[in-house]
Structures are given as C-alpha cells and as structure tokens.
Amino acid sequence: MGNDWSHLVDNMSNRLAPSMAKDHPNLPVVKEEGCYYYGVDGKKYLDFTSGIATTNVGHRHPKVVEAIKQGADELGHGPSGVIIYESILKLADRLAEVMPGNLDCFFFGNSGAEAIEGAIKLAKHVTQRPYIVSFIGGFHGRSMGALSVTSSKSKYRKFLQPSGSYQVPYAQVDDCPAGADPEQYVVDQLEKDFERLFAHQVTPDEVAAVLVEPVLGEGGYIVPPKAWLQKVRELCDQHGLLLIFDEVQTGFGRTGEWFASQTFDVTPDIMAIAKGIANGMPLSATVASNELMKQWPLGSHATTFGGNPIACSAANAVLDVIEEENLLENTRDVGAYAAQKLQEIKAKHSVIGRVRSVGLMIGIEIIDPQSGAPNSDGLFKVLDTALENGVLFYFGGNQTEIIRMIPPLTVTKEQIDEGLRMFDEALTAYEKEIGVHN
Questions:
Q1: Which of these, 428, 402, 417, 421, lies nearest to 350 by C-alpha position?
Q2: Distance in angstroms between the alpha carbons of the first and the last residue of the chain
Q3: Are strands 352-358 and 44-47 parallel, antiparallel or unpaired?
Q4: What is the pLDDT of residues 9-56, one digit of tens each?
Q5: Burial letters for 332-347: b for 16+ Cβ neighbours within 10 Å, e otherwise?
Q6: 404 φ, ψ to 5°?
Q7: Has residue 332 got a pLDDT over 90?
Q8: Is 197 in contact with 140 (CB distance < 8 Å)?
Q9: Residue 38 CB neighbour total at 10 angstroms
Q10: Superfamily of domain 6-57+326-433
Q11: CA-based Rg of the chain, rounded to a whole angstrom?
Q12: Within 13 Å of residue 188, how many CA atoms lie on the same side as its CB?
C-alpha cells in the first residue's frame, strides 16, 4: 500500500467508530523507532507519549522485535491451559522475581481493563463480599466491571449505570489549608472519608477490596504522599479488606522502580499490570500470591487469547532490556532532569499551573493566566503547536487540563532538551496569541 493512503484517512470516520477514531491528534504515521514517530508528511516526531505509557523500552526495540519474530516462528496462539509453552512459564517465573512482596502468581490477559476485571473478580470470590471501594478521579478501564470503579470523567459512565462500588476522594495535597502539613492533612482526610463511608453507605464486612492507582493516571497525574498510600494499606488491614493496586500505567519502570508499589513502600494483595509489560503487544496480568490465587478455582475465570505466546516472548525481552540498559536508573535520573527543566519553563509561562512528577510520569497543568482556572482550550492549542514543532504529548485530567509527558524510559537528556525546547516555543506562541506578556 505504501505511504499513499490519504484516501483511507479521509474515509476513517465512516469505517472506524468515533470512540476509536476521534482521539487526539490523529497523526498519520508510517514508522516508529526508539523515541520517534515518522509521519506520512515526511517529518520525524519526538514521542513523549510512549503509546500512552506502553512502549517503555522505546518503539520497536531491536531485542523485542527479534523476540516477536522468533516467537512467531514457533507458536502463534495458545490457548494457555489447553496447551502450555515456554514463554508464558518463563515470564511468570521472571515476573515473580521483580514483583513486590509475595505477589508471585499470575492470570494473564490482554489489556489493562481485563487485568482490573480479574482483580475485582478474584477479590469478590475470595472474600465472598459484593463491593469494591475506589477513589474519585481514578481510571481503571471502560468495560463494565472496570467502569464501576472508574470516576476520572462522568461521561465514561453516562447511560451505563455501573454498580457495585463506592468512591472516596483521592489524596489532594493542593487542598491543604495554609500553615498545615500537607502529608498529615491528606492522611487525616483519608481516615475521615473512610469513617463517613462505613458509617453512612456500606459496612466494612460488605467490602471485598479497596482499589487504587498509586499515582492517579488519566485523572491528572496526582502523586500522593507515601504516608497516604501507607494509610490506605493500614485501613485495609484494620478492616479486613484486600488492597488492589492498579499499576497498569505505573508499572515496568515508569516511576523509577519496577512498580510504584516499591516506590511508595506499600505492597498490595492483588495487582493489575499491563501497558509496559510487552511494549505494545497485547498482554496484561492479574497478580496475587499463590495462596490467594489457589482460592480462585478452575472455571471461575478463563481466557482464550490471554498470555499469547508471542506477547509473552516480547515481555521476556522487555525484562531483559530494562535490566541490561539500566532503565530504572535512567528513569530516575532523566525524570528528575525533566522535572527541573519544566520548573524553569514554568517560571517563564503564566499558563502553566502545577507540575507533578514521579520518574518519567509527568503532568503539566495548563491554566487561564488571569483566573487560574483549568484551560482545556489552551491545552489543545499548545499540544497542536508542539506537534507542528515536532513533539507529541498527550492529555489528561478531569477537565482535560493536564498535559501528560510520558516518554520511553530510554529517553536521553538531549531528547528531553529537544522536546522541551519545542514545548517552550509552543507555550510562547499561545501566550502571544492570547496577549499574555510574562
């Protein structure tokens, strides 16, 4: 077909569902490599999205590509259980070595939403309790079980009426009154929120688990204090509840450790992992201890495509690359460098509000410079100009006010400089357009 497929792009709205085809920015590309996309227009674009935190070891990493090719030469499909194969067994063993605590048993699926569905089903089956508690602003997927615990945007739930969960506020350090200690404030608020929940809406003995993103993802890249997550763990233990971590976006080095659980020194009972696990191949896992998983008997959950042998081969290669190229260390080092550079840019531009980061998971708030209110229109103008300049970012936040900067973990300081220069120029152009003089 070559590169002359503009007629297909023109007909996209007739062939692809709008919910699939209308995301931003719909950049037509012909190739990807490392930290770059190559467009139909002949331009090279620096990618600060990693396929939404998925291609953690860079696009088409040679070792991953080779593993996919070799895997395809041997097996194309499972299904696991009907047959068994080396790549899935090897992956389970290797993941057990890097998972936190005693999380050493895996149910492999295809997507983050599937991993969440599995986590919810496991928790309910083991405890024989009907409800899950999650956090306002969390995003856990759009299938009905995952949607029941998702509240990052109300439009995701419109007309669907998902049930079976209760929500409490996520850590909001920015709401801390002047003069108070932010860490103690969010811990105290968490205790009060759970007290109200259990006093007025649901009793603890009806709750199977508490489900939380250790860093709020689609909801705005909110990084909680370590003490807040540790208090979540403490409250679960106090009331006899399981703790589920949604590490779909934070896993596989994104926060500077293998998992955010290790960054925050909190071990959950169940974890959902996906995205970076196989660098873009469809793969995920619901993870728990062997002791817990044994209570989930044959037939209570199953999959046809989960744990695909080629995807498992890719995942094994991802683990190799993260270790061999010291990508956890690079994430901490380059992530801190990027955060510092963004603070310097923030000082120059009144349209930037807060900058939040952990590792290479960075959120940049775009605001109205007069009112300080979230500025979704301005955000998209900045994103569009940055893309014209040659760098791709993504968006997030409840009011679409957060620019997500999530480059591959292989990114260099030179590439950070290159991308942030183009971002800085986009901010300057937008401020000139609206008549702001800093």
A1: 428
A2: 49
A3: unpaired
A4: 778 878 888 887 778 999 999 999 999 999 999 999 999 999 999 999
A5: bebbeebbebbeebbe
A6: -95, 125
A7: yes
A8: no
A9: 16
A10: Aspartate Aminotransferase, domain 1 (3.90.1150.10)
A11: 22
A12: 10
Beta carbons of 125 and 141 less than 8 angstroms apart: no
Residue 158: band (very low, low, confident or very high) from pLDDT cuts 50, 70, 90: confident
User: Would you list the domain boundaries of the chain?
Assistant: 6-57+326-433, 62-324
pLDDT at 266: 98
Tokens in use for 213? Answer: 């993103």
DSSP helix/strand/coil, 106: strand
DSSP secondary structure letter of residue 170 = P
Mean pLDDT (whole number) for 312-319: 98
Residues 6+ apart with CB under 8 A from 260: 214, 215, 245, 247, 250, 251, 254, 358
Amino acid (1-letter code) at residue 104: D
- What pLDDT is stored for residue 1 in this prediction? 41
- At 165, list the tokens: 């969960």
User: What CATH code would you report for 62-324?
Assistant: 3.40.640.10
Cα(49)–Cα(418) distance, integer angstroms: 15
Q: How far apart are CA 310 and CA 73, in angstroms?
A: 9
Say how far apart CA 260 and CA 230 lie, in whole Å: 12
ω into 225 cis (within 30 of 0): no
Q: What confidence tier does 3 reach under pLDDT thresholds 50, 70, 90?
A: low
User: 289: which strand partners?
Assistant: none
3-class state of residue 347 by DSSP: coil
78 pLDDT exceeds 60?
A: yes
Contact 78, 307 (CB under 8 A): yes
SS (H, E, C) the chain: CCCCCHHHHHCHHHHCCHHHHCCCCCCCEEEEEECEEEECCCCEEEECCHHHHCCCCCECCHHHHHHHHHHHHHCCCCCECCECCHHHHHHHHHHHHHCCCCCCEEEEECCHHHHHHHHHHHHHHHHCCCEEEEEECCCCCCCHHHHCCCCCCHHHCCCCCCCCEEEEECCCHHHCCCCCCHHHHHHHHHHHHHHHHHHHCCCHHHEEEEEECCCECCCCCECCCHHHHHHHHHHHHHHCCEEEEECCCCCCCCCCCCCHHHHCCCCCCEEEECHHHCCCCCCEEEEECHHHHCCCCCCCCCCCCCCCHHHHHHHHHHHHHHHHCCHHHHHHHHHHHHHHHHHHHHCCCCCEEEEEEECCEEEEEEECCCCCCECHHHHHHHHHHHHHHCEECEEECCCCCEEEECCCCCCCHHHHHHHHHHHHHHHHHHHHHCCCCC
